[in-house]
Amino acid sequence: MSHETILILDFGSQVTQLIARRVREANVYCEIVSCATPLAAIAARKPKGIILSGGPASVYAPGAPQVDPGLYRLGVPVLGICYGMQATSHACGGQVVRADQREFGRTELRVLGNDPLFADLPPRQVVWMSHGDRIESLPGSTTIATSDNCPLAAVRAPALNFHGVQFHPEVAHTQHGAAIVRNFLYRVCGCRGDWQMGDFIREEIERLRAQVGDGHVILGLSGGVDSSVAAVLLHRAIGKQLTCIFVNNGVLRQGEADGVRELFAEHIGINLDYVDASDRFLTKLAGAEDPEKKRKIIGAEFVAVFKDEALRIKREHGGHVRFLAQGTLYPDVIESVSVHGGPASVIKSHHNVGGLPADLGLGLVEPFRFLFKDEVRAIGSQLGLPDAVVWRQPFPGPGLAVRILGEVTAAKVKLLQAADAIVREEIDRAGLTRAIWQAFAVLLPVKSVGVMGDERTYENACAVRAVTSTDGMTADWAQLSYELLGRISNRIINEVRGINRVVYDITSKPPGTIEWE
């Protein structure tokens, strides 16, 4: 089944993904493509609408990405956001100038007249601006909103089938941003809203069966949301043709290995190959203190262990093992490489994209390659996975190794596992698991003097970290109550022998990061 599609042309904005999220949240399917995508390729996709993203360039700068004027003759509604609006003006005979005053942050928008883009929204609303240039004119356009520093804050050009906004409706700081995007989709483009997770599950099961045939699939199961939901979806599609490899690297959270085995092998009935490589990883980590070195050791060792197991399974199943499944998400693809050929720079390399050995000779199965995390969570819920898995907080690939500052040892792992379990238990008891992006403990490389009973102690210090966020790109420290912090501290000091001091991290991101290493 084909879905009505919105194409988002990426001009290099770091928040282009947020545009896609807003569109998907409105039950409309969308994909991000390069702003350099040929016009014929765009037309061949038969989109219901096109959105031009923001971007860091000035339209007059050498090499700045431009828009093909033919785009506005496709008969498809177009929405230009910030740079996308400026590029439209530049391509269609308008004028873009350097603003007298750079406009950044919250701004009051004044809506003029009636336009479907602002239907059922207040005439004055707060939006988020981020631009140094602005458009002075766009032939055939009408101004539909203005602000103090931006006379043409939003325009409509009927002959071009174009709406443009100088602000960013995709970000959370724009008061009615999601509603503005929804108005474009439904009132301007005429979308029906046929993107439902139930439909996706049925369609993806059919696609997976067609792709795999009678072959066997291997999946690296970490216990995280993405790989867990992928495992259950694949199990529903191909049953015993799936084998999941779960590697215990010795730096997992308390009870995590047993929990994964109980849920997936015993309860769901998935073929689970459990590999306890704890000693192997901890031996490799001995003496390593630098965070990046620890990450590289764990990454390389995981690939080695996984490869050994995958080859063993291939030998057991003969030539039937043909595919490697991964829980790759759309942001993983976008952030890992400039896959769309656009002007955005590479943000990070991701373990799910190209991280496993190519010499296994297996084809890739990636059911979530074009999905976002919230969509995968919705699929997990519909597939019947427990909330503890679906709403599991993010956990770094190197595990507790990057929450133990300095060298990682078995004794330190045991200490941190116990302290971390208390943090998570108390956060859960307080009903804050979903409200908090991440909550965990960090073992610090310092000791302090304490008094326990009548005895002097000289033991480890532990930091508690809890942050709120919507996407992990930025985060603020969670303002937990003194009572909750007191319970966490009291329990750790009383129940974890070897820790006598607890501190709370009140650093936001930026300037800090969520993890300590």
Query: Which stretches are poorly predicted, pLDDT < 50 over at least 5 residues?
Result: 336-354
Overall tally of domains: 3
Helix-residue proportion = 25-40%
**Which second-level CATH architecture of the largest domain applies?**
3-Layer(aba) Sandwich
What general outline do the C-alpha atoms trace?
globular
Strand numbers in spatial order across the main sheet: 2-1-3-4-9-8-7-5-6
What fold name stands as the CATH topology of the largest domain?
A: Rossmann fold
CATH superfamily of the largest domain: HUPs
Q: Tell me the radius of gyration.
A: 26 Å
Key features of this structure:
single chain; 517 residues; GMP Synthetase, Chain A, domain 3; alpha/beta; 3 domains; globular; Rossmann fold; five-stranded parallel beta sheet; 14 helices; nine-stranded mixed beta sheet
Outline of this structure?
The chain is of the alpha/beta class and 517 residues long.
What does this protein look like?
It is a single chain. The protein has helices spanning 16-25, 39-44, 83-91, 177-188, 197-212, 225-238, 256-268, 278-285, 291-317, 330-336, 373-382, 387-390, 410-429, 482-495; strands spanning 5-10, 29-34, 49-52, 78-81, 95-111, 124-137, 142-146, 154-157, 162-165, 216-220, 242-248, 271-276, 321-325, 363-365, 438-452, 455-468, 476-477, 499-504. The protein has three domains: 5-188, 3-Layer(aba) Sandwich (Rossmann fold); 197-390, HUPs (Rossmann fold), CATH 3.40.50; 403-504, GMP Synthetase, Chain A, domain 3. The two termini are 45 Å apart. The relative contact order is 0.09. Helices cover 33% and strands 25% of the residues. The model is unreliable at 336-354 (pLDDT under 50). By secondary structure, it is α/β, with parallel strands linked by helices. Helix 5 (197-212) crosses helix 6 (225-238), helix 6 crosses helix 11 and helix 8 (278-285) packs antiparallel against helix 9 (291-317). The protein contains 14 helices and 18 strands. The strands form three sheets. A nine-stranded mixed beta sheet has the order 2-1-3-4-9-8-7-5-6, sandwiched between helices.
